[in-house]
Amino acid sequence: MFTVKTGEEFISDIRALDESLSNLRISSVEVDKKNYSITYNFICDKVVDEELKNKILSEAEKITARVFRAVEVTVTKIVSNDQLVDNEIFNYLNSSYPSISIFLKPTDIRSGIYGNLVKYVIKLTKDGVDYAVKNGLINKLNNFLATKFCSDFAGSLEEKEADESISLLSEEVYESQLQKIEHRTIKVSDVVCIDEFDMGDLALYIEDAISGDVIICGKITDIAERQSKTGKPFFILNIDDTTGRASGLYFTKKNTYQKIKELKVGDDIIARASIGEYNGRKSFTFQKINRCTFPSDFVKKDRYKKTAPKTYALIHPEPAKTVKISSVFDNDAPLPQAFTKETFVVFDLETTGLDVMSNGITEIGAVKIMGGKIVEQFTTLVKPDYPITSDNQAITGISEDMVKNSPKIGAVIPDFMKFIEGAVLVAHNADFDTKFIKRFAGAEDYEIKNKIIDTLEVARKVLPFLKKHDLHTLGEHFDIAFHHHRALSDAYATAEVFIRLIKIKGDL
Q1: What are phi and psi of 499, to 5 degrees?
Q2: 238 near 247, Cβ under 8 Å?
Q3: Whole-Å CA distances, 251 to 32, 210, 212, 256, 286
């Protein structure tokens, strides 16, 4: 016997299992269509042991449709922190409401924690406040934050003066802000209503659909009807708009079931959808669907690339702290004049694995060389959207606990772009590091065009007699001590190796 329950009833039954679950929330639900499995992801402000987790799993199995062969639950401990809340609000507004976040600064958001209630205030310009009120921003933001933290949220808006001006006739155009309001769209035709008369004919590129509520379109590449345990039908759809693919669920209504059932592979649709995220992958729920005709002459518009920001926002460079500077630069061999006139940024990354498309960055370390001397360092841990395995932790020394309060790579990239602006990039086995940094920079609409020097290739030419040319071997050869497999230490070591190699080589 299976009982249909609302989300509220489901959560209430789970919270009743133990008082430690009183603030438990559901963060997201992941459906694996290929393996017919479903994962319920919860967050809680208390540690949940295996016995209690199994009880939660039992409750989840009771309300899950029989079509799923496997049911899993995850419970992550998350405690509200005012800085983390501020960061989530700032990122949410920038990604979901770019038109009102043009003049938004991190300091325009203030939150405070009062027991299980988090109160926050957002300062916007008058137009921004009006737009936010009209579109119910606070309610949407509260619902979003409730999936990220185990707290209740109460937000308010304050009006502020616009402290920046934009003059389209001068060079002082705030390009980075203007880029926020650029949305690449597809205009469809012949819209036939199934669900919503006023959905319109303009859809966002699936590639650009990051979070929140969006309208997307595309050709159906797969559609399958399924039934819940109670016999209620729902559909699993995949669509493709040539910029990306969207896969998700559509729960039918009595008046739309037959029309949705008539849809087939190859048909074009435009849909209103909400986006969730699990392990860095987008998860769609199709709320409203209409038929349409996808433009036969559609050509993907290239995304406008951002320029480096004018100031650092989150990660600020610090003066260099290497103990090897004097011994390196006191070497008798002179540095080439061309070297001393260039600016170099030597960088190193730690990652969750080797495959660039299925792993994330856990640490960035970089040092800047100007006038032939190491002058600045840039370093931060990064919270990846991919798990850190025990093997990876053994190699890098970086654990899940170490990065749990660190910024995500999307928040770090702008500051890194500022740090490398106008510099020649240097890395050891540069192909590996540059593939990772280019991937994540591209995801934030930045393009890395810097000249790149690989110290591995330089070492092979300059020191052909060495059997190996890995960083550890080169460090031993030049008597450079470093703590292997931490990004900043490796960046310093690579910088010192680079300088020694250039002194031997005699040119760039």
Answers
A1: -65, -45
A2: yes
A3: 16, 22, 18, 10, 8
* Selection from 136, 75, 145 nearest residue 113 by Cα: 145
**Residue 21 structure tokens:** 């679950």
Contact indicator for 495, 369 with CB cutoff of 8 Å: yes
CA nearest neighbour of 452 among 426, 428, 429: 426
Residues ≥6 apart with Cβ < 8 Å to 269? 217, 218, 220, 237, 239, 263, 289, 290, 291, 292
485 given a catalytic annotation: yes
What secondary structure letter does DSSP report for 262? T
Report CA-CA distances (Å) from 357 to 247, 360, 435: 19, 8, 9
Question: For 210-221, how does the pLDDT look when each residue is reduced to its tens digit (9 = 90+)?
Answer: 767 889 999 999
Please name the helix (run of DSSP H) or strand (run of DSSP E) that holds residue 402, with its range, or none: helix 400-403
pLDDT digits (tens, 9 = 90+) for 317-340: 999 875 443 334 445 567 888 888
Helices (H), 36-105: 50-62, 82-96
The string of DSSP letters for 94-120 reads HHH-TTT-TT--GGGEEEEEETTEEEE
Give residue for tokens 């170490």. 402
Rounded to the nearest angstrom, the gap between the alpha carbon of residue 454 and the centroid of all alpha carbons in its chain is: 28
Distance CA 54, CA 447 (A): 46
Q: According to the model, what pLDDT value does residue 402 have?
A: 95
CA distance 397 to 300: 42
pTM above the 0.90 mark?
no
How do residues 61-79 score in pLDDT, each as one tens digit?
988 888 888 999 998 877 7
